[in-house]
Input
Amino acid sequence: MRHHSYRNIILTAAAALPLIVSGVVSGPAFGEEKKPEASDLPAFLTTESPFDLSVTLSGLTDYVSLRGYSQTARDPALQATVEASYGDFSVGFFAANVHFGTSEPKIEFDPFVAYRTSYENWSLDLTYYYYTYQDAKDSDYPEFFHSLSYNFDDLATVTGTFAYASDYFGQSDTGYFYKGAVSVPLPNDFTFSGSVGYQDFAEGKFVRHWVWDAGVSYALGEAITLDVRYHDTDIDEDVNCTGGAFQCGATIVGKVSVATSLSAIRKRFQD
Output
């Protein structure tokens, strides 16, 4: 059944997290040189290639969606993203545990395809997601993201995003999401970032609302990132966010992410 494969992905990611952390933070003892010879390494680690494979595992105190709703009823979440890319084209999936106040679904699994390119200070990201939920097929739906970013010579990056969902949560309503975001690098490997968004609907079957977030992240080496972020919406919690599920009020979320990729591994061995 589909939920068995989803659960196996999450469990595998959870089991791999300590191994990845160990591999990222461990290395030669102080004063030692243990860099292997190129001839001892597999060819894919020593040969430049447009193909890349990346894996990101994250642990969060709460899974808050882009629209500002908790997807885990304020409980912790484990997330995994696996992406294979060739040049500007990518395919992959995102997986996470969810809790909507019912026995099912427990797992969200979102395959995606993307086209990402850049020219000078501009970056374009076109990503198509198909959200699927374990044993809740009526809630599955597609969404198409369009994002354009401009980098002000590494002083700040601003991004505008428009997302279109033709059958939002399988409820025969079209969703339109607009978001503006800014990211500012700070000294000592810190970064400030924040965004403001508006969720609209063609039929109004869901609550139209504003959503915003702001937070600071810290890069602990090249692969580990710590993030603390404030989330909020203008939704009336007492009317639209009752029953324990889909909480939408103000909250602070902590997150730790571990990421690695073939290109990062190649760079580590080739430097």
